[in-house]
Design brief:
Layout: H1 4-9, H2 12-20, H3 30-73, H4 86-128
Length: 129
């Protein structure tokens, strides 16, 4: 019997010639042994694929459980109504909008001052050209 290294060195033509040689005796039951080995390999491959699928399922289930637990245990962020009287709530809203308006007016005034400075710089640059 040849060693594996010797078989690997054979060319395709040599392998074909050797396979056609009918003087070489084939062990009895080799077909059954090959079928058994192939079936075992297919079974092992399917078992490994099933383990991978199960692992993915377990990871997804653990993630879903974590999300459900977080939703159930974390406090809700629903704001509570701070005013019992709608008139008081409306008055607070007007006060807030007035504050925002004052701040916007201040910002617009500052922008106007900067705009004047920019125009002065642009005029100086245009004169240089």
């Amino acid at each position: 019997m040849k060693q594996l290294e010797d078989i690997e060195k054979l060319s395709a033509e040599d392998l074909e010639r050797i396979s056609a040689d009918e003087s070489i005796l084939v062990p009895k039951g080799i077909g059954r042994d090959l079928r058994t080995a192939l079936a075992a390999a297919a079974f092992a491959e399917e078992a490994a694929a099933q383990r991978r699928r199960n692992r993915i399922r377990y990871i997804l289930l653990a993630g879903a459980a974590a999300v459900v637990t977080a939703v159930l245990l974390l406090p809700s962020n629903t704001p509570q109504d701070t005013f019992d009287d709608p008139k008081l709530a409306y008055a607070e809203l007007e006060r807030t909008f007035s504050y925002i308006s004052r701040k916007m007016d201040t910002g617009i005034a500052m922008t106007g001052k900067f705009n004047e400075s920019i125009e002065t710089v642009n005029n100086a640059i245009n004169k240089i050209k």
